[in-house]
Design a protein that fits this description.
The chain has three helices and no strands. By secondary structure, the chain is an all-alpha fold. The protein is elongated and about 60 Å long.
């Protein structure tokens, strides 16, 4: 699996997490809901975006290394 495929999987996992969180949040209405969202979910899209950028850079580097070794 390439770094690019892994990045795509990461984006898909975030989409699925957001869907499941929406379902859970519909039944979970307390202070812990807000705390969980703030501590774990609020910054997650930014982290995923940065991770994807790095994974794309890694993909480019790996392709260059492979090309240089051939």
């Amino acid at each position: 699996m390439s770094a690019r495929e892994s990045a795509a999987n990461l984006v898909q996992a975030l989409k699925e997490l957001n869907l499941k969180w929406g379902e859970a949040k519909a039944h979970w209405h307390d202070i812990k809901t807000q705390q969980f969202e703030r501590e774990y979910l609020e910054d997650l899209p930014d982290h995923v975006q940065r991770t994807m950028s790095v994974m794309q850079e890694i993909d480019v580097l790996l392709k260059k290394v492979k090309s240089d070794c051939e």
